[in-house]
Design a protein that fits this description.
Layout (H helix, E strand, L loop, with lengths): L4 H6 L4 H31 L10 H7 L4 H16 L3 H7 L4 H11 L8 H10 L2 H17 L12 H18 L5 H16 L7
Helix pairs in contact: 2-4, 2-5, 3-4, 4-6, 6-7, 6-8, 9-10
């Protein structure tokens, strides 16, 4: 992407600020890695109950971390445990904490143990949203043993509410937790079976 000419004309070097940013990033990453490992330990041991919390997410919120930050740190902690080499990549800035968290489910999955290097490279080079979508797709394919097609849909607030309710009903009837994609499949099959004359059972 070209830099607008007026910005080039006004630019001046700030090497000191850049050096401080890089140094501070390193210190920040070291602390985040330590917190990620500690939060993972808190989660696994259920230590959060000693802070009168029902979950590690609530515990994180009490300690000043948002639910998103807490989930990201715990996921990163699990990835670092599975692949210790990630620590240096994080500290040096080759990987972001968000990318490590997105990779965590696949780096800790036994079916993908031989592909860790490939996924780490994707984490270093891919857009975060695309990376997250690809990880979820490949995990779903590994579970279902068939090709999974990623889809993006737009829902109104009311439609999202109804879908959430339908998913809850579907999970209750199926007797298991369903991902959003699995819920769409269950609900769609139910509707077709109920209303398509070619598929109505006698």
């Amino acid at each position: 992407m070209a830099i607008p000419k007026n910005n080039v004309d006004l630019a001046k070097r700030e090497d000191g600020a850049e050096a401080r940013i890089l140094a501070d990033r390193r210190e920040k990453r070291i602390l985040e890695i330590r917190i990620a490992r500690d939060l993972l330990q808190i989660d696994r041991s259920a230590h959060f109950v000693y802070s009168a919390c029902a979950s590690v997410i609530e515990y994180g919120c009490k300690k000043g971390y948002s639910p998103w930050e807490t989930r990201t740190l715990i996921a990163a902690g699990a990835a670092l445990e599975a692949v210790p080499d990630l620590e240096e990549r994080l500290i040096e800035g080759a990987l972001t904490l968000d990318a490590v968290a997105a990779l965590s489910p696949i780096l800790t999955h036994p079916d993908f143990a031989a592909e860790q290097a490939k996924w780490i490279h994707l984490g270093e080079t891919s857009d975060l949203r695309a990376l997250d979508r690809l990880v979820k797709q490949k995990l779903a394919e590994a579970e279902k043993k068939e090709l999974v097609l990623p889809k993006t849909i737009l829902l109104t607030v009311e439609e999202e509410k109804v879908f959430f309710e339908a998913r809850c009903v579907a999970m209750k009837n199926e007797g298991k937790k369903l991902s959003e994609g699995e819920a769409v499949g269950v609900i769609s099959r139910f509707y077709v079976d109920a209303h398509d004359p070619t598929r109505v059972h006698a």
